[in-house]
Amino acid sequence: MGLAKADAEEALLATAEEHCKQFANWLDGAQMWLAVRAESNTEAEKMKQAMEVSLAELAAAKAAAEAAAPPLTNLSEERLRRKFGGSALLPRLEAVLPAAVLFSDASPLRELVKFKLVNLLRLEDDCCRWYPNPGTRQYWEAFGSEWQAGSTAGWLPGGCECGGRVR
């Protein structure tokens, strides 16, 4: 096995300032430096492997949990209200569209409204988790107010396909 020339030179250069006057101490310092570096590299490699295993286990557990959970669009109105109970946007939307439209499982409304509603509420929920400052909630409140004001004025933002004026 042995010691590579480049490693020996690096160790000697790394410890030269401390031991340039005493050659034996310098060699001891260089050997200690090599041992610490080898141990650090070994430990770093072990940590890397452990992290890879941990991340793979986490990804597998997350995939299994997602596969077991029903899609949010399949949840009832009551369960969606519980899931998104802290939404600043939902009360504004309900002021404009009746719950029967927002949470409908009837075929045309489900694709046109409920799918988009769930995606928007998930986005709001994710934003509030990722950016937990008051400004995030204020943004969603303002967004809901703008949406509510626009819909009562006869237009729906975002190209809503609900068929014109909603009152």
How would you sum up the major sheet?
Answer: none
Alpha carbon gap, first and last residue: 83 Å
Helix content: over 70%
- Shape designation: elongated
Oligomer: single chain
Cα Rg? 31 Å
Low-confidence stretches: 155-167
| Helix-strand makeup class | mainly alpha
Give the ordered list of helices and strands.
Answer: HHHHHHH
Total of helices: 7
**Average pLDDT, all residues:** 79
Strand content: under 5%
Number of strands: 0
Concise synopsis of the structure shown:
It is built from 7 helices and no strands. With 167 residues, the chain is mainly alpha-helical.
Please explain how this structure is put together.
The protein is mainly α and 167 residues long. It has helices at residues 5-19, 23-68, 77-83, 90-96, 99-102, 107-130, 134-152. α4 packs parallel to α7. It starts with a helix and ends in a 15-residue tail after the last helix.
Provide key terms for this protein.
single chain, 167 residues, mainly alpha, 7 helices, 73% helix, elongated, disordered C terminus
